[in-house]
C-alpha cells in the first residue's frame, strides 16, 4: 500500500473506544456483515484517491481497513491524497481523459458533472441500504442521478461554530446567541475586546461554501427555485449580503483569501475567537500539549438561526465514485462493500473522532457521538444536511455553479465592499444563468 502527499493538520483521537465501544452498537442488524457480492478480477489492483485528512485518525483507520481488505482478497490498494481544493479538478480531468484512480472521493454534487463516466453502483448501494437502516436523504441525493446510484454516499463532514468560551464571557455574554442578530452583536463585542471572528470568504471548498450557503439560506434566499430558475437576485439575498458586510467588519484582516486550512490556523494561533469548522479544529488543539488550555476552552454549537426561522445548514459531503475506465470494476465494488460493512465503517467513524458522520442510519449509535459534548453539533450532520442545489434539482447546473464559486464570490464581493449588495447579487445571477438554462 502506497501513501503519498502531505497531511494538512496533525491531530488524531486514535481509536479511543476500540472494540469495547463497538459492542455498544446495537442498531447494527445481526445479518449486516454480508458475504462479498463481487469477486475481484484475477490480478486486480486498485488506486484510490482521497482528500488529505484534517483528523489523522480518519486516515489511520481507513488505511487499517484497507490493509484488512488486501489481506482478505489479495488485491493491492494504493491510497493517494490531494488537498481539498485539488480534488475537484483532479476528478474532472480523470473523467475527461479516461484514466486515473479507480476509486475517488469527490465533493458535494461533483459526480453530477460527469455521471456518464461513473460506474452504476445501484445494486451495491441498495444492498448496503437494506442491511444498514437506509441512506440519509441528503447524502443519497448527492450520489444519485435519475434514480440510479453513480456513487456511494461516504460521509458528511459536520460544520459547526467553534468558539472560545472564556472570550465569549469576557465579551459580556453568558451564553452563545442562537440567532443571527445576537451573533452579530457578540462578534462586535468580541472584536472590541481584541478577539475578532474569522470566516472564509476565499475559494474554500468546505468552509467557504458552508458559510456562504448559511448566510444565504438563513435570510430566506436561494440560488434557484423548485423548477431550477435562478432567483438569487432577490430582496432576501440583498439582506443576507448586508448582514455579511456587517459581520465582516468584525473579522480579522485577510479572510477574503482564506482556504479551508486558514481558519484552522488562525483559531489555533489565538488570532480569532470564533469560526465555523469541523471537529478537527478541536482535536488539533486537544492533541497538542501546548494548546491544552485552549482545548479546554473550546465549545461548539450549531450556526445561528436567521430571519427564516429555522436551522438551515450545508455540510461538506463526500461521495466515493468508481470510474468506468477502471480495469477492475468488480474489485473496486468489492473494496467499497468491504469498507462499508459494520466492522470497518464503525472503525472508521470511531477513528475519525466525530469528523466523518455516517451516511447509513444504522451507524448513528456509534459511541463516538456521545463520548464528548463537543461532538454533539456534528452528530446529525447527515440528517440535517440541505443540499447546495436547494431548492432545485441536483445536476450539472448545481454542480457547476458550486464549482465556479458563484455564491462564495458573491458574498466576498459584497462583504469586502468590492461591489454593492445589489451589484453582487446581479452578477451572481448572470453567472448562474450561464449554467441554469430553463
Short précis:
The protein has helices at residues 18-22, 56-73, 84-97, 122-131, 137-143, 165-170, 180-192, 207-218, 235-248, 262-268, 280-286, 292-297, 329-340, 342-351, 381-384, 396-403, 406-415, 421-433; strands at residues 45-51, 76-82, 103-107, 144-145, 148-149, 152-157, 160-164, 274-277, 298-301, 316-322, 356-357. By secondary structure, the protein is α+β, with helices and mostly antiparallel strands. The strands form three sheets. Strands 2-1-3-10-6-11 form a six-stranded mixed beta sheet.
Shape: globular
Tally of separate helices: 18
Tell me roughly what share of residues is in helical segments: 40-55%
Count of distinct structural domains: 2
Q: What would the CATH topology of the largest domain be?
A: D-Maltodextrin-Binding Protein, domain 2
How far apart are the termini?
47 Å
Mean pLDDT across every amino acid position:
92
Strand content: 5-15%
Total DSSP E strands: 11
What would CATH call the class of the largest domain? Alpha Beta
The name of the CATH architecture of the largest domain is 3-Layer(aba) Sandwich
- Radius of gyration using CA atoms only: 21 Å
Largest sheet: 6 strands, mixed
* Series of H and E elements: HEHEHEHHEEEEHHHHHEHHEEHHEHHHH
Structural class: alpha+beta
CATH H-level superfamily title of the largest domain: Periplasmic binding protein-like II
Main sheet: which strands, in order across?
A: 2-1-3-10-6-11
Low-confidence stretches: 1-32
Subcellular location: Periplasm
Keywords: Periplasm, Signal, Sugar transport, Transport
InterPro entries: Bact_solute-bd_prot1 (IPR050490), SBP (IPR006059), TAT_signal (IPR006311)
Main location: periplasm
Amino acid at each position: 500500500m502506497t501513501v503519498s502527499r502531505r497531511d494538512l493538520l496533525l491531530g488524531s483521537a486514535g481509536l479511543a473506544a476500540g472494540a469495547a465501544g463497538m459492542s455498544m452498537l446495537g442498531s447494527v442488524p445481526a445479518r449486516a456483515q454480508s458475504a462479498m457480492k463481487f469477486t475481484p478480477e484475477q490480478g486486480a489492483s486498485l488506486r484510490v484517491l482521497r482528500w488529505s485528512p484534517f483528523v489523522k485518525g480518519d486516515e489511520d483507520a481507513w488505511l487499517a481497513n484497507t490493509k484488512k481488505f488486501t489481506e482478505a482478497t489479495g488485491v493491492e490498494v494504493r491510497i493517494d491524497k490531494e488537498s481539498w481544493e485539488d480534488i475537484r479538478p483532479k476528478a474532472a480531468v480523470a473523467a475527461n481523459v479516461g484514466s486515473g484512480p479507480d476509486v475517488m472521493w469527490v465533493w458535494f454534487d461533483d459526480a453530477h458533472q460527469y455521471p456518464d463516466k461513473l460506474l452504476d453502483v445501484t445494486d451495491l448501494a441498495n444492498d448496503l441500504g437494506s442491511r444498514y437502516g437506509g441512506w440519509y436523504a441528503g447524502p443519497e441525493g448527492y450520489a444519485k442521478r435519475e434514480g440510479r446510484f453513480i456513487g456511494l454516499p461516504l460521509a458528511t463532514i459536520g460544520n459547526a461554530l467553534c468558539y472560545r468560551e472564556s472570550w465569549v464571557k469576557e465579551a459580556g455574554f453568558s451564553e452563545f446567541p442562537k440567532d443571527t442578530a445576537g451573533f452579530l452583536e457578540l462578534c462586535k463585542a468580541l472584536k472590541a475586546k481584541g478577539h475578532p471572528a474569522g470566516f472564509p470568504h476565499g475559494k474554500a471548498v468546505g468552509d467557504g461554501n458552508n458559510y456562504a450557503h448559511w448566510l444565504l439560506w438563513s435570510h430566506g434566499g436561494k440560488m434557484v427555485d423548485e423548477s431550477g430558475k435562478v432567483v438569487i437576485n432577490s430582496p432576501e439575498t440583498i439582506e443576507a449580503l448586508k448582514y455579511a458586510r456587517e459581520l465582516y467588519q468584525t473579522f480579522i484582516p485577510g479572510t477574503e483569501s482564506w482556504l479551508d486550512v486558514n481558519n484552522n490556523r488562525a483559531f489555533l494561533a489565538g488570532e480569532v475567537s470564533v469560526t465555523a469548522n469541523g471537529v478537527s479544529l478541536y482535536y488539533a488543539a486537544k492533541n497538542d500539549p501546548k494548546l491544552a488550555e485552549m482545548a479546554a476552552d473550546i465549545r461548539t454549537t450549531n450556526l445561528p438561526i436567521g430571519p427564516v426561522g429555522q436551522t438551515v445548514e450545508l455540510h461538506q459531503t463526500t461521495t466515493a465514485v468508481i470510474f468506468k475506465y477502471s480495469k477492475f470494476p468488480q474489485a473496486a465494488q468489492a473494496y467499497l462493500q468491504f469498507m462499508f460493512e459494520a466492522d470497518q465503517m464503525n472503525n472508521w467513524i470511531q477513528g475519525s473522532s466525530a469528523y466523518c458522520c455516517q451516511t447509513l442510519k444504522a451507524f448513528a449509535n456509534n459511541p463516538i457521538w456521545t463520548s464528548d459534548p463537543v461532538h454533539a453539533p456534528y452528530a446529525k450532520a447527515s440528517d440535517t444536511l440541505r443540499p447546495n442545489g436547494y431548492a432545485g434539482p441536483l445536476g450539472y447546473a448545481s454542480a457547476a455553479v458550486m464549482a465556479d464559486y458563484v455564491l462564495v464570490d458573491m458574498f466576498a464581493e459584497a462583504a469586502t465592499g468590492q461591489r454593492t449588495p445589489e451589484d453582487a447579487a446581479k452578477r451572481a445571477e448572470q453567472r448562474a444563468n450561464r449554467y441554469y438554462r430553463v
